Each structure stands twice: as C-alpha cells, then as structure tokens.
Amino acid sequence: MSPQESKFITVLGIESSCDETAVCLYKGPRKLLENQQMQQPHGEVLAEPLFSQIELHQKWGGVVPEIASRDHLRKCLSLIDTALQEAQLSKEDIDVIAYTAGPGLMGALFVGSCIGRSLAFALNKPFIPVHHMEAHLLVPMLDEPALKPPFAALLVSGGHSQFYGVKNIGDYQLMGETLDDAAGEAFDKVAKMLDLPYPGGPSLAALADQGEPAFKLPRPMCDRPGFDLSFSGLKTATLHLIEDLKAKGELEARKADLAASFQEAVVDTLFRKAKRVLKELNMKTIVLAGGVSANKRLRALFQTLEPKGYKIHYPRMKWCTDNGVMVAYAGWHAWHRGFAQHDHTVPLAVTPRWPLSDLT
Ligand code: KG4
Ligand code: ZN
C-alpha cells in the first residue's frame, strides 16, 4: 500500500433491505481530524451501481418479499463486480465491508448480509452491520461536511416516520413516531386507491403537481400535544372522499386535486410536528431523510423556515431513496466509532425490527 493510499479506507457498502439491490465503493479518510470531525471532507464515492426491482413488483402493486429476496440474490454479486470495475479496484483493495443488517424484510436483509459476511470472511476483512435508518440519516452529511450534530431529524420512508434529536453521531433520541402507517406507506396506499402505479409515492407526488390542494383533509394529531404521528385516519378520510367523488362521477376530473390535498395534509402534518420538535429541542437545524424526503412539496414547506434562521438539510435526490452510498458512508462512520467486527465466527444475525435509539 502506498503512503498516499494508506490515508484512506475503502468501504464496500451493500443495501438489500427492501426492493433495491445497491452497492457502493466509498473511499474515506482513515483518520478524523481531532475536534473538527465533520469539517473535514468526507471522502469520495467511487462507484454506486443500483438495481431497482420496481418492474418486478409493479404487477403485484407492492413489494413481494420472496421475489425481492430472490432478485437480490441474482443481482448482488454482479453489482459488486460492476462497482469494482468502475472503481478500477480489486476485491483485495476493500478495507471493510458494511451491509444493511436491519430494519427491513427478513429474507432480503439475509441476502446482503450473507454476501457481506462471506466476502469479509473470504478476504479476511472486518465487517460492519449497518442500521438502514441511520444510513438514511447520515447521508446528507456526505455532501455537507459542515453539517454536524446536534440537530433534529425527520426520518420518513416506506416503513418509518420518526422524529429524532441527534446529540451526536450514534446518539439518537426518539422524540415521536407514527402510531400506525408510515408517511411513505400512506402515500403508497392512497396511490393504490387512485390506481396509480407502484411505487405510489413518486406517482402520487407527480399527479399532485398538476392539481391544487382544494379538499380539506385532517391534520392528524395536530390538536394534541406531543410529537407522535398517525396516518391511518387520514388514509380513511381520503378513501371516503374518493368514494364520494366516484359516486358523483367526478373522480377522474378531480384526481390531481385530490392527490395535492392528500400530499398537503401529510407534509403539513409533518411540518407542524417538526416545528414542535425543534422548539422542544431548542434547535435550529433539521435533517430530512428517507424516501419521502424526495418530496418536493415537503422540501418547499420546510424551506419556509430558512428566512427565520433555521437550516434545512436533505440528501441529494438519488440518495433519498434506498441506495448503497448511504450504507458505505454509515459504515465509514461506524468504523471510526470502533464498530468494525473482526471475529468471523460470530453467527450472522439480521434485525428486521431495530429501534435506532437502541444502536450500540
Ligand atoms: O427510504 P425508502 O426508499 O425505502 C424504505 O426504507 O422504506 O422509501 C420509500 C418510500 C416509499 O413509500 C415511496 O413511495 C416514498 O418513499 N417516496 C415518496 C417520494 N419518493 C419516494 N413519497 C412521496 N413523495 C415522493 N417524491
Ligand atoms: Zn430506506
């Protein structure tokens, strides 16, 4: 290894928790500068091939776990080869292997985890089981090295809707979360009611762009104190509205307005609760992450806080939804926290349910 290369570590990241098989080779500094960890440039993405299973699941209208697992198995190794070729590296150049160990679909998680662990064993390299939601949460920092804790975070994906107080990297205080559906899940279900193609979130958001939020829909739990969320009542209210419009023969003409009204109800609810969380934590910075952070209306609404002195951060578009970069990058952070594991005899475990506040 040349002295130049030894200043960096190369992390292989593997993501397979749901319906994207994604791999990344990431090169980050081996040493963090004392007391200014986050000001330091964080490194470089060398390759980030991703295969989306959208087409495979589309005809079923949602993710079919067994189909997802089988396809991860089909694609993962060849994506690793592609990444190595793109980065012009060999397997031996990898210093550590990070893979999503949870939360997510059990079978899907097993595929990426087995491949990660097997490679680590074969190459005699350390491995790092990564928390998928921590990976979502950290990835905005990759583009913004000046962003550092403490800050508030809103994690909104297909399976999670949660507010956190981030005291430090690795130290996450859950402030509130959804009591039923996640925000992304609500988008997906309402999209299905409107016969929009899977994945529903982006389809519904695109339709909403063509309409106006003309219908009044509830802002769930905003009339109560606290930071928890609930989207199932809003989903039911939307279903009743759809049935009413259908009965009057007006559904087709009002679909875009309905989509815009539903989207507005979700993002406005998240926004109102987020303001409470910021006030409670006495913080002026919030990170939005997870698939729903790709929503343009959500971003625009949060940005209205900026003239009031708040800072809003979110990942670049392609890193909002599941990707390998966030896993490799979270792996790099975990490596610096001393979480790399060297004992290849430790039994492989995946954690389909894994609270982020329990991260150790
Ligand atoms: O983070 P992610 O890729 O996967 C999970 O960890 O769940 O998030 C996927 C979720 C889906 O529910 C999808 O419909 C939603 O994010 N989503 C969106 C948008 N893009 C993705 N929801 C609303 N607006 C969008 N533009
Ligand atoms: Zn995700």
- Main sheet summary: 6 strands, mixed
Unreliable stretches = none
Name of the CATH architecture of the largest domain: 2-Layer Sandwich
The residue fraction in helices comes out at 40-55%
Rg for CA atoms: 21 Å
Structural class: alpha/beta
Number of domains: 2
What is the highest CATH level, the class of the largest domain?
A: Alpha Beta
List keywords for this structure.
360 residues; globular; alpha/beta; five-stranded mixed sheet; 11 strands; binds 5'-O-[(R)-(carboxyoxy)(hydroxy)phosphoryl]adenosine; binds zinc ion; single chain; Nucleotidyltransferase, domain 5; six-stranded mixed sheet; 18% strand; 40% helix; 2 domains
Write the layout of secondary structure elements.
Elements lengths: L7 E8 L4 E10 L14 E4 L2 E3 L1 H5 L6 H23 L8 E7 L3 H18 L3 E5 H7 L1 H4 L7 E6 L4 E8 L2 E7 L5 H11 L6 H9 L23 H16 L3 H31 L3 E5 L6 H8 L7 E3 L10 H13 L24
Parallel strand pairs: 1-5, 5-6, 7-10, 10-11
Antiparallel strand pairs: 1-2, 2-3, 2-4, 7-8, 8-9
Bound molecules: 5'-O-[(R)-(carboxyoxy)(hydroxy)phosphoryl]adenosine and zinc ion (ZN).
The site of 5'-O-[(R)-(carboxyoxy)(hydroxy)phosphoryl]adenosine has 20 residues, from helix 6 and helix 7.
